[in-house]
Write a structure and sequence with these properties.
Blueprint lengths: L2 E10 L3 E4 H8 L3 H8 L3 E4 L6 H16 L8 E5 L10 H9 L6 E4 L5 H14 L5 E8 L12 H4 L5 E10 L5 E9 L7 E2 L13 H4 L7 E2 L1 H22 L9 E4 L4 H11 L10 H4 L6 H11 L8 E8 L3 E8 L1
């Protein structure tokens, strides 16, 4: 049985910076309201031809460069996105084409905020069993075009940004370094608490003027329920990852969570009894980028020197489904 490791990480975000002042003018909310509720100050929105595939391509190139491999050495692509460039096929094949390669399987997953952790768990199994030596794992999102930018949509529209993060998952030549464990869960009884209902195959016809006059086409979140479950599941799944290795919080160097809401991250730190700076945050600059948030955050943590050889890192996510998970990594 092999061990897998993250050999390269990279991210890319759109050029356009959207401030709370600009967004607040559309939604009729003040900057102070957005910061108090979410911790977000700015986010990036795609424009001028920026696409999910192009964002993911730039992030992937950075990850490949850091890993020191070429696209031709990729054995598999795992692509996580709530909406790639087309309704079908998924973004994995599109990215593969843009990388100039053909042959390796491209697996698309749609696990929203948990996409990167779910994908990492899948990649880890393929590497461990020896099937592949290098897997490209991508989380890429453009959420800004799905939002209701009227005052009615303010509670959701203040949250989301666009971007992409990518990681190369490789066979490790060290028994000391790599992904120690992953755990993934879901509880579908809460599926309608964080959802975008339409358009869907259940709409006949799938697209109609009547449908687009409803609020079903916009994301919906029961904020209180999401917060309650998130601040429970995050600590649970982090502690589970440590306990599996006979480790404790005192052994952990950094937690890199899904960037859902700064208030959630702060509550998780409080429940775990760790300092705020133990829980990495960049939501203030990017907002919630869904499946891209963990790889973007991890990439920045590496750039800032917070993640380096020998450090013990825990990735953790919670979101739509409800689904949640974690990955414990010795860098």
């Amino acid at each position: 049985m092999y061990r897998s490791c993250i050999s390269g990480i990279g991210h890319h975000v759109p050029d356009r910076v959207v401030t709370n002042k600009e967004l607040g003018a559309m939604l009729e909310v003040e900057d102070e309201f957005i910061v108090k509720l979410t911790g977000i100050q700015t986010r990036r929105w795609a424009e001028n031809g920026e696409t999910v595939s192009n964002l993911s391509l730039q992030a992937s190139r950075k990850a490949l460069d850091q890993a020191g491999i070429t696209p031709e050495e990729i054995g598999m692509i795992i692509f996580s996105s709530m909406g790639s460039d087309y309704q079908f096929p998924g973004g994995g094949c599109d990215l593969q084409h843009k990388l100039g390669i053909a042959g390796p399987p491209a697996l698309d997953i749609r696990n929203a905020c948990n996409g990167f952790v779910y994908g990492l768990s899948v990649a880890d199994q393929y590497i461990k069993t020896g099937m592949y030596e290098h897997i490209l794992l991508v989380g890429a999102e453009i959420q800004s075009t799905s939002l209701d930018l009227s005052p009615k949509g303010k509670n959701m529209s203040i949250l989301f940004g666009d971007g992409a993060g990518a990681a190369v998952i490789s066979r490790s030549d060290s028994n000391e370094r790599g992904i120690l464990n992953t755990q993934i869960y879901s509880d579908g009884q809460y599926v309608d608490r964080l959802i975008q209902e339409a358009p869907s195959p259940n709409d006949h016809p799938r697209l109609s003027k009547e449908l687009f006059d409803t609020e079903r086409i916009y994301p919906f979140m029961d904020g209180r329920t999401v917060f309650k479950h998130a601040v429970t599941r995050f600590p649970e799944v982090i502690l589970e990852a440590l306990e599996k290795e006979g480790l404790g919080l005192e052994d952990l160097d950094l937690i890199v969570p899904h960037q859902a809401n700064l208030r959630i991250s702060e509550m998780v730190a409080r429940k775990l009894g760790v300092e705020k700076d133990m829980v990495f945050s960049n939501i203030e600059r990017y907002g919630n980028t869904t499946s891209a948030s963990i790889p973007i955050a991890l990439s920045e943590a590496v750039e800032q020197g917070l993640v380096s050889d020998g450090k013990l890192i825990c990735l953790a996510a919670f979101g739509a489904g409800f689904a949640w998970g974690s990955a414990l990594i010795r860098w």
